[in-house]
Amino acid sequence: MPPESPRRLRRLILVLGDQLDAGAAAFDGCDPAHDAIWMAEVHEESAHAGSSQPRTALFLAAMRHFARERREAGWTVHYTELDDPRNRGSLGAELRRALQDLRPASLGMTAPGDWRVLRMLREAAAAEGHELDVRADRHFFGTVQEFAAHARGRRSLRLEAFYREQRRRHGVLMDVMDGSQPAGGRWNFDADNRAAFAPEGPGEVPAPPVFAPDALTREVLALVRRRYAGHAGSLEAFDWPLTRAQALRALDAFVRERLPRFGRWQDALWPGQALLWHSRLSAALNLKLLGAREVVGAAEQAWRDGAADLASAEGFIRQVLGWREYVRGIYWTRMPGYADANALGAQADLPGYFWNGDAPMPCLADALRQTLRTGYAHHIQRLMVIGLYTLLLGVQPRQVHGWFLAVYADAVEWVELPNVLGMSQFADGGVMASKPYAASGQYIWRMSAGAYCRGCRFDPAQRVGPRACPYTLLYWDFLMRHEALLADHPRTAMQVRNLQRLDAGERARIVREAESWRMTQA
């Protein structure tokens, strides 16, 4: 009898580095006996954004752990490592090589998070005669189509309206007796969640769980050090959760040890404190090691069990159920043109010290060095220390976006781009945020109880002169540069009225000193 012909691969399932969920829609109807998984580490995904060493290592290490787990579960995984001599360097080129070698009958995946990646993979599949079956990502509460329906016909898109709609639709933090009303009679506890620490600081903060690199991760760290030695960041403090089991441990530790105090202190700053009461769950969420529903469910259950107050649970849930889903909707309904937004006409270059942390202000230096060392900073450091400075300095938004995408280990474009261009830099002209998040150095003084400012050579109360805080100087200059825009907005009109109290001489001095500062930062 002639030899039996090898059975043709029925389906090749594409899995990207931010899709590490064995229960994702791409696996529906598939089984290891007939189908296989495709994964690839490619240089382009590190090079196109100048990805930092912690960010690259996080993705590669998590991918390798996921691939190993799928093999142990009986799957065939066609996996190309970064240093494979056959590696063609991009996802599109690697997919084409795989299709030529494996010749699957069909090709499918869960929807990618990035517009660029989806276009690349569709084009590669089409070039090899395949239609790419793209399935909705169940990781999120809602779909892009549902967000588009929410946005249709609205004059403005604001988080609060979307967030309330999400709460009602999914029954999250709703009154058990009246499902149409929010628990506690309020939708939003933001006003209760803006406290600063006392002058003595946050007190004892629980140590986060540590995920020491295992042998597989150590191989990745050595590879990244060798291959990307010139990229920013350090791997000395690398301890991210890389597997589903580790991510669940991180979630449990946050809910038990940090969530009860998260709400009140979520906007507070303190030198040398990278985590405080924040979760550091964003990377595990964005890699899909955790699901949004289980994270929200854990926080809500903690409140219902009496282990966390409602303000803390609501503040955290708003970030996941509200903000995270909101920025995804903005991204997918506005791309690709959204990436070029620059409503304020900002053209300054990003200062070089953003890549080494040697900033002249202690608050900024602390946030930058922490970021480069760990790949992490909490949301107030990102928005109101780093992002605020680039906004006031007038840095070109694409440069700010490029830096954030490069340095943060949890950065994927669908969530990072709207947060930076829309929320932080107001480059979209108000699509996301109702006003620019512009503030003087007094904000940082207040939210850190003066801890950064006491040892600083600059004074946040001074707007001109040799001791003027750069944040304060640039804040007043920002108000003047955008006075017409800000005067017409009810939430910024008071700032403009304060500006109009300055005489012509002081206004001219602010402009002169602000321009001089910009020249020294280039």
Task: Note down, in words, how this protein is organized.
Strands 3-2-1-4-5 form a five-stranded parallel sheet, sandwiched between helices. It is globular, with a radius of gyration of 24 Å. The protein is mainly alpha-helical. The longest helix is centred in the middle third of the chain and has 25 residues, at 310-334. It has helices at 43-47, 53-72, 91-102, 115-127, 144-151, 159-170, 215-227, 244-257, 259-265, 282-287, 292-304, 310-334, 362-374, 379-393, 397-407, 413-424, 441-447, 470-481, 483-487, 493-499, 504-521, and strands at 11-14, 35-40, 76-80, 106-110, 132-135. It has three domains: 11-135, HUPs (Rossmann fold, 3-Layer(aba) Sandwich), CATH 3.40.50; 144-206 and 258-334, Serine Threonine Protein Phosphatase 5, Tetratricopeptide repeat (Alpha Horseshoe); 352-521, DNA Cyclobutane Dipyrimidine Photolyase, subunit A, domain 3. It starts with 10 loop residues before the first strand and ends with a helix.
Helicity level:
40-55%
Shape designation: globular
Mean pLDDT: 95
What percent strand?
under 5%
Q: Give the N-terminus to C-terminus distance in angstroms.
A: 77 Å
- Count of domains: 3
How do the helices and strands line up, and which of them pair or pack?
Blueprint: E1 11-14, E2 35-40, H1 43-47, H2 53-72, E3 76-80, H3 91-102, E4 106-110, H4 115-127, E5 132-135, H5 144-151, H6 159-170, H7 215-227, H8 244-257, H9 259-265, H10 282-287, H11 292-304, H12 310-334, H13 362-374, H14 379-393, H15 397-407, H16 413-424, H17 441-447, H18 470-481, H19 483-487, H20 493-499, H21 504-521
Parallel strand pairs: 1-2, 1-4, 2-3, 4-5
Helix pairs in contact: 2-7, 3-4, 5-12, 6-12, 8-11, 9-12, 11-12, 12-16, 13-14, 14-18, 15-16, 18-21
